[in-house]
Amino acid sequence: MYRRLFEHEFKLMFFSKKNIIFIVLLASILFLYVTIILPEKAHIETFNTDEVKEQVGVKEVLQDQRREEGHTGYGVMTGFIYGSEEYYVRIYNKMLNAYQNEDFRRFIHLRVNYLLTNNEDYVNSEQAQSAPIPNKDADHLFKKTLTRFEHYLELDHPITYSMIEEKTALQQLHQFILSTLIYIVIFSAIYFSSNILTKDRTHQSLLRGIPMNWYHTMSIKSFVSLVYTLLTIMILGIFAITLIGLIFGFGHLKLGLVTANYDMMYTNELLLKIGPLLILLIFMFIRLNVMLSLIFKHAAVVLSISTAFLISEFFYYSRRTRELFNIDLSYLPQTYFDIGKIVTNEKNFLLNTETITYTQGIIVLVCTFILIEISLFMTTILVTKRRFFNA
């Protein structure tokens, strides 16, 4: 009985037109991103040879003038301008040569040496200037970049330019997990399960005739939705990773991610920490959808309420907000929907706090799940199968 219901529900989800359209839309967006947007996407470490040659050429002309005029020492207004500019010209000429020869290990050596004496590329970058706290964020990004480059130099694996720009498949996976795009994964679960019960109101005879406990029926449906969502995410993920890998390279498992504490976290560790949280969140929202379906009996209402809960943090989020209605943010479940930033401790850095931890996230989300599960159980008692279909 359980197996037949599982197979039936899975077929309904698999052949659902709304699900197919949504998956095709996601796959199309992924394809456009990988083939059109990503190749042109600028990175703070993007090395534009034309711009560098132009800047080096201008500085060489000025250096020649300074040598002719004897201005090679210390100036009251300019300081040691000759020495600093000469260092810039020499090191960037070497970087140009390394880039043209595709010797990116030497390129990173030179780049690290330059960054250790000059972080203006980060302090004056558009990314830093547009940040809520420019100096703090620029320094953070600068330290993470140095840590990342030093990590590359310790590896035996060949260094590619795609690695420098963080465009390899695994690095893009890291970036996806760290970004708010991870919400799309959770929204997919909400979307797929929004009509988990309401669709049966148009085909009542099949479900009403199953001799199974009402709550157990809800559990089977929820499990089907969980399996379907995870399979869809895996297939789309494999599609994206393969496509990016063919264009920019796959990277390798030792290619780590820099945490907010400037430690290295490898892909296997990242996935092991992300996996349980993501599965818990997906199943939590599926069960919430089941409960809302029993109450409102309309897929659009269910989708709207669950989506509002998912994105609720965006309505009050601020780098200076650490409490909501005198409740510490570490006790609110929506704080942990941004799971990538939780695992890497980035959220603590952004909010300048130490209370939002991975362990705390698991505790809060498990408690939230239990609360939803208890509420669902009570709802199935109040809204029986007969009452649901006759309403």
The CA-CA distance between the termini, in Å, is 26 Å
Q: Could you say which structural class the secondary elements and strand pairing correspond to?
A: mainly alpha
Largest beta sheet: what is the strand line-up?
A: 1-2
Radius of gyration: 27 Å
- How much beta, percentage-wise? under 5%
Oligomer: single chain
Specify the helix fraction band.
55-70%
**Contiguous uncertain segments of 5+ residues:** none
- Label the overall shape: elongated
Mean pLDDT: 89
- Give me the count of strands: 4
- Strand count, sense and closure of the main sheet? 2 strands, antiparallel
Overall number of structural domains: 2
Run of helices and strands: HHHHHHHHHHHHHEEHHEEHHHH
Secondary structure tally, helices = 19
Secondary-structure blueprint:
Elements: H1 2-14, H2 17-40, H3 49-69, H4 81-100, H5 104-115, H6 120-123, H7 126-129, H8 134-154, H9 161-164, H10 169-178, H11 182-193, H12 204-208, H13 214-248, E1 257-258, E2 264-265, H14 267-296, H15 299-310, E3 323-324, E4 327-328, H16 339-343, H17 346-351, H18 358-382, H19 385-390
Structural features, described:
With 391 residues, the protein is mostly helical. It folds into two domains: 2-41 and 172-390, no CATH class; 49-164, no CATH class. The chain is 69% helix and 2% strand. The chain is built from 19 helices and four strands. The protein has helices at 2-14, 17-40, 49-69, 81-100, 104-115, 120-123, 126-129, 134-154, 161-164, 169-178, 182-193, 204-208, 214-248, 267-296, 299-310, 339-343, 346-351, 358-382, 385-390; strands at residues 257-258, 264-265, 323-324, 327-328. Strands 1-2 form a two-stranded antiparallel ribbon. Strands 3-4 form a two-stranded antiparallel ribbon. A hairpin with a 5-residue loop joins strand 1 and strand 2 (264-265). Helix 4 runs antiparallel to helix 5 (104-115), helix 5 (104-115) packs antiparallel against helix 8 (134-154) and helix 11 (182-193) packs antiparallel against helix 13 (214-248). The protein is elongated and about 95 Å long.
